[in-house]
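Quarterly update, task 2.4: NAP-bound model.
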Amino acid sequence: MVGGGVMGSTVAAGLVRAGHPGELITVVGRDAARAAATAADLCTASGTVAEAVPGADVVVLAVKPQDMEVALAQVAEVLAPGTLVMSLAAGIPLAFMKARLPEGTPVVRTMPNTPARVGQGMAALSPDALCTPEQVELARAVLASTGEAVTVPEKQQDAVTAISGSGPAYLFFVVESMIEAGVHLGLPRATATELVVQTLFGAATMLRETGEHPTMLREMVSSPGGTTVAAMRQLEDHKVRAAFLSAMEAAAHRSKDLSDGVVDDD
Ligand SMILES: NC(=O)c1ccc[n+]([C@@H]2O[C@H](COP(=O)([O-])OP(=O)(O)OC[C@H]3O[C@@H](n4cnc5c(N)ncnc54)[C@H](OP(=O)(O)O)[C@@H]3O)[C@@H](O)[C@H]2O)c1
């Protein structure tokens, strides 16, 4: 695990929780003492790139996008041929990594999201053509230790970023708005917060456990002439559905611009 910050620690912790022996996971940091402290917390090993990378089955790059160039150069120096390299960095294309790693290196680009920190992440992975089916499964298993993981072609990563990558922020925004509304309606803030958070959790659980279409579930709480349809009418009048579409288009375009910028800077 190259980078033992928020995401690197999250994935390493997920792997340990999933039963992978901690001593087989090495956390590598820029600062050896900090990496050792992180590793001790996670019950994993710590070491340098030169110590950890040559014998690894998979090298996970969990550094900030702006630190990828340096990290890739360090890894490239000692990487054994055929070793899988997977990146958790937002917006770093496969081509950027492949150009900096030894020819023939199998690479996976991934987009995790913040709920991985509570074991409920949603990640998408895009393997390049050199990955064997076993390596794709290995990458999927690494991500699945912190939640769910799906495989998508790399060209869909901008849409993934717009939906599940940034998605938690949209839902937090909805939660904030509903809590404010509860306070306006006279509820104590703590009560409004509890009502909204559990409602979100309950609705998400219903979606997952029933497998019903969201429209069906919404219609179940929409009595003719009742309270829910009165509220939905306001949301439609304020074009909330269209706003979500525009917001996610904007996020996807921004994601593409950022990735294109990385490649253009080559
Ligand atoms: N946080 C999230 O929820 C989230 C969600 C989706 C994707 N991601 C992606 O995950 C990646 C990591 O994000 P993060 O939030 O975990 O960042 P972070 O907390 O800043 O952690 C990055 C870690 O990488 C270390 N590092 C930098 N260069 C290194 C190198 N050459 N060798 C070894 N370690 C190095 C840093 O060390 P120092 O402590 O010395 O700086 C830091 O500990 C990013 O690319 C981001 O796009 C994160």
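Highlight for this quarter: Residues 6-153 form a domain with the Rossmann fold fold (CATH 3.40.50.720).
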